[in-house]
Give the backbone structure.
Amino acid sequence: MVKEFELDVPIDIVRSDGSLMNHAFALEYPVETLLCGPAASVAGVMNLLEDDIKDYIIADIGGTTTDLSIVRKGQAVRTEEGVNIGSYRTSVQSVFVETLGLGGDTRIYADKSGHLALDTNRAIPLCVLAFEC
């Protein structure tokens, strides 16, 4: 798209730890983009909040998952070791992210005993349902 609009601008990509890398570095080390989406959310929220708010939890709710991150004393909590992908540990440093299988289209319901439960069936977001009616 940058070429299509003939823009002469630098391209920066968010790394897993919330810092930025240039396009050439990202091509050489694509593994550094693991969890870059949640890291970008953390950076965005940190820039939007008032300076006097120092401790908070960020919930990045997507279509299928929710990523939780923590900011303490105005700094994003980072992993002490590399990012885990399943049972594999990488050497990629990252903001702390806890991922839950609960997203914007996850169906939540009360089971027969009245406890909340998650369903594997997708729910239709109300905005989509309203548009279709």
